[in-house]
Amino acid sequence: MNNQRSFFFNVDWLTVILYLILCIIGWFNIHSAIFDEEHPSIIDLSTNYGKQFIYIISALVLATVILLMESRFFSALAPAVYVITMILLVVVLLIGRNVGGNQAWISLGGGFRLQPSEFAKFATCLMLARYLSGTNIKVTDTKSFLVAAVIIGFPMVLIILQPDAGSTLVFCSLIFVLYREGISPLFLIVTALVIALFILTLLLNQNYLILGLVIAALLLIYFFRRNQTLIITVVAGFVISITMIFSVNFLYHNVLKQHQTVRIDEWLGITTDLRGIGYNVNQSKIAIGSGKVWGKGYLKGTQTKFSFVPEQSTDFIFCTVGEEWGFAGTLTVLIIYLILLFRIVFIAERQRSNFSRIYGYGVASVIFFHVFINVGMTIGLVPVIGIPLPLISYGGSSLWSFTILLFILLKLDSNRMGII
Amino acid sequence: MNSFFERRYVILGIFIVIMLMLIGRLFYIQVIDDKYLAFAQNNVLRRFIKYPDRGAILDRKGKILVQNEHVYDILVTPKEVREFDTLQFCKLLQIDKKGFDQRWEKAKKYSYFRSSVFEKQLPARLYNSFQEHLFEFPGFSVQPRSVRNYPDSVAAQFLGYISEVNDQTITKSNGYYHPGDYIGISGVEKAYEEVLRGQRGVENSLVDSRNVKKGKYMDGRYDTAAVAGERLTSSLDIRIQKLGEKLMQNKVGSIVAIEPATGEILAFVSSPTYDPNELVGRERGNNISAMYKNPYSPLLIRPIQAYYPPGSSFKPLSALIALQEGIITPQTTFFCAGGYQAGGHWVGCEHYDGVTNLRKGISQSCNAYFCNVLNKVLNQNGAKNTTAAYLNWKKDVNKFGFGVKLDVDLPNEKRGLVPAPARYDRTYGKNHWRANTIISMAIGQGELLATPMQMANIECTIANRGFYYRPHLIKAVGDKDIIKPEFKEKLSVGIDSVYFHPVIDGMQDVVERGTAVASRIPGIVMCGKTGTVQNPHGKNHSVFVAFAPRDNPKIAIAVVVENAGFGASWAAPIASFIVEKYLRDTISRRPSGINPKRYMEASLLPALPGSLPKLNPHLPKDSLKKNQADSNKKSIRSDSDKKKSQIIKIAALKPKKKDE
Fold first, then answer.
1. Which of B30, B67, B241, B642 is the most exposed place for a label (fewest CB within 10 A)?
2. End-to-end CA separation in angstroms for chain B
């Protein structure tokens, strides 16, 4: 260690350990999920668990390289990285390989392929941090807010064209970053309300919903009768809500793809089709639920191993955790994520530079969103949105992307005393 | 650090709330809700039943009566079916397009995803050509199973048959039987169902999402092997069974032969019979409904279900009871004036026998002699005590297994009939009936009804000089040849053995110089008794009972041929062929010139005019009803013009005199 002291000095070892634990949990669960009796070894390179081992090793190399780089580099190179990633996102639309309906991959030859949307996550975080940390930039200013929104929105547009709705939604999580930097809490509240209204529109009879809104609005107006501003706000909110109710139907039937609407219908219980569209979630719940408290044991899971659960090594890897390790396992994994998130926020808050802090919140937001959506999806809490579980799901692009995301923060943190 | 520092707590709060939501939900589905575990097992666990082979049934020498043959069920999974050449498919299975469509609809209705039986029990011959083309028919598969096979096609009613269990049986079995299982419905198959069926095995397998077996559950810890059913050794002798069936073809009736020393049933012929193989395989449905429609009801198990008055074959029993009671001695004589005057009516004999003792009474089948005997028996305590005397007599008769169930090891055995006094009280009024009122019982007519099995059993008792073993069909169960204890129990009929000798003398005379002299077997001393049983609906039934040889008897037999006339002309020769075949394994030339060929070829099936009462195919109707009618006074009266000119006024049947 001594001769590397200069490089690894001040690295937040707790985060590194949590990172390694998650990678190893992922690796073993991938082994179990797609266990092949002819190739039982976990480092057999002809299998995907063998490949994951390679990805982990290469991710560690990548992490080391990042830690060896100069901190100020990241701030300086942020615009370049952002632009290159955006170019790749355009390129992938032109020459990308279509896998599972998404034009998301650029083939690198030799069986390896790159998913630019994964790298867009840290590129956008870097760019957002770089912009918001600039002098005289306040996110509360309309102009600054709009520029920040464009930085976030541009990759979203390119990714939705693939069309990869799951990855697109990830960028929405950056609203936490904006919130931390000072935008009105109304954004969070309105976002929550919009989601609630969207769901209610699908679930309830439109007329009852409008009736309910009218009553709510009248009550609020009566309540706020002394305050003209609030009344105007309420009226405006009411008008927007009514508009939204009507636009939801339009959005739902004319903008969203059918495979998306059926997923939402299934999630909300509007339709129940356990053999068709609801099969995945139902089987996923069965796998997780059958694990009970202590699970069935390593390599003993039947639901994931006998391919009842689809995508059992990638998006639905959490099923294997739930089935073989039980509630004890799922609780452990979620607590590790929670500790990691707290640690990242703690690290972000101890930065002297705005760039580092803003970037840190970006990292936390992206990881949080992935965990929430992915785990929520496997237990039917959110609709099926195909995004990986950070560091655990099988796949090189995803692992590298999260590694880069996290270790840039660690590098920035190790240098927190210096001025960028 | 900027002014929005506090907001980190909001963000962390959101993180915690969302994580708690996930954890709460996980806690619910993993810890509280048990249904997912059940669903999971439902997903991967499959119980495969391993069917045991049903036990084989052998004859007493080890020849196979029933064994298992392999056939093939064709299964279909509609979801996996792709386009194929239906014409060729139908040709291979030998079904038509309409039948194909019906089966296809049925399979789809059952389940689109799960396999069901498309065609049952394809014989090996068809299967061989079909399986060469199986790959051309995706979605179809084959499942071997075993069915019963009868190499000699004999003893159908004895063996009985098996059939798919019905819903009622499934419910009653407390989960033992499942739809599609087979169960014994009649005969030995039913009586010994629990021994024959064996023990099913279970294999708990894991399957993947495509229902492909992936290995055993818990390394087979909960699996059980199928245990084949026990082999049964029956007491039947296939040689005489076959001969009996041949002799009885185109006739209605029964042959029952029993080994007196053991009670083992040697022959069990019920005619008309059928080929038991007809109740197996694809044509089973058609065959069985044809059998139900057959007016001669081949499914009726005549040896234990058909009722006949024993007629003159009852006389030895009648004599034995009187001897035991001390009413007569072998030297007691009665005078036969060609008949017996019973109060106001006359029971005629066909001979004028004059002074008749026991031996002569039996050998000449003198009705007058036996009417006098019964009269004395019933009047021993005075005419007023007839009822008590009758009850006593009835008890003695019952001891021979007559009028009570013999508890043969076959289901649905009938008990026969020796009427209770109450029946006469009802008909004639209490104490208004006397010995002469019911005198036709003396010669085995009247209300008396017996099954051929009971008739043969009486011969066993006489052959044994006073006891019998419960007649049974199965002498050994399994490889260890275990004999059921109830079949080793010696049952005494309460008559001292000394009284048998004069009766047996008389029976020997029947064959040597009496009514059945034409059926004498050179070199074998057979003791027998003919019976010609009156039948108001047609020709008399021909009955013969016998045992042989006289000393150390090896076989007791009862033969009933319906509508055949005299006992001596049909039943006695048939019995003699079987006795000789059993004792010597060959049939010699008879001095009387009779030979089996003529008896095999003769057709004595009663005509089936519309005038016959409609037959209920499920019941032993033809013989039962007709013969019960015999004991009904009205029908007897209408029938009485047949024989003698006397007017019959009371219930006693006008019996035929001696058989000749």
1. B642
2. 133
